[in-house]
What we know:
alpha+beta; five-stranded parallel β-sheet; 11 helices; Rossmann fold; Dna Ligase, domain 1; 31% strand
Amino acid sequence: MKVxxxxxxxxxxxxxxxxxxxxVETFVLENDATCPAAHLCQHFVKGDIxxxxxxxxxxxxxxxITIEIEAVNIEALEKLESxxxxxxxxxxxxxxxxxxxxxxxxxxxNEIPSSNYLITNSLEDLxxxxxxxxxxxxxxxxxxxxxxxxxxxxxADLQKGFDAPSVLEKMVNVHKEIAVIVCVSQKGETxxxxxxxxxxxxxxxxxxxxxxxARLNEKILWKVEAIARKVAxxxxxxxxxxxxxxxxxxxxxxxxxxxxxxxxxGHHTIEGNYSSQYDMLWxxxxxxxxGNTKPILPAAIVxxxxxxGYSGEAIYEGLEEVLTIDNVFVHLYGKKETKPGRKxxxxxxxxxxxQELIFQANKxxxxxxxxx
Length: 372
């Protein structure tokens, strides 16, 4: 099969690393020939994944196409799908998820628990809803990796909002943030990975580190998994979906957001689970049986972000020391240039002892710095 990937970032890179285990001819479309995925695919095409004609010409001779980012031209994918190219997930699913307004309406229409919300079309509109605060303002389209999200605690924060169509979500009193990856085969079969517990950098609003399987009581676990399955099933598409959820202080479960692709919260599955999320997506695309989602060992992930105050050619300070730690696996994304907060890699730690996971995660955060 000839399979194309829209986007050439680190998710595409790791997807291509898993592709080496299968008989598949790989194509990548990205506008940067030095992107992390460029040298791992068999055919690289330089171009804009948001441009209709570029995406259509890229995909028209392929058997299947998938994405590693939502910011793609959906109209071109719809045309390709109508001409027999398989698209994972379906363009209709990407269309729902790509726009935060459509996403919230989807949850409401399918009776999926998600926090109350209002739609705002401008900053002036936002200022009419002081009584709805505290809330989170999310831009409808274009937000990514923590960008396009602002916490609005009071009227003093209103100027931080977005002067564009956006969602204003009621603040949830969060006890834990959880991510669940649900896999849907072309036959409609499903498999689900154990939930991961996520801890975020409050300044960058990026995943700081996570632990999987999440430490949840059985009742909450069942609720989390049931809601995640309902999200994936309601999208009516084969593919791999990462569902982020909140557990509040009263033990209610709320869906925060969904991603229609492999996801940062599933990086640990490369070493920590029998079938990684990347292997699983290839099984779905190639119409093979779904893999085993069970954990081999509990795992933690540390995101490697560009250190504050450094821009330029990346230097990995402390890398050799981290590589001496048992059951630690370093993944560098091949990005030559660093800048503050840029995702440059991740580290996975395996251990049966959760305290050991958290200890090593914090140790690695202190030891391994990306400077210039």
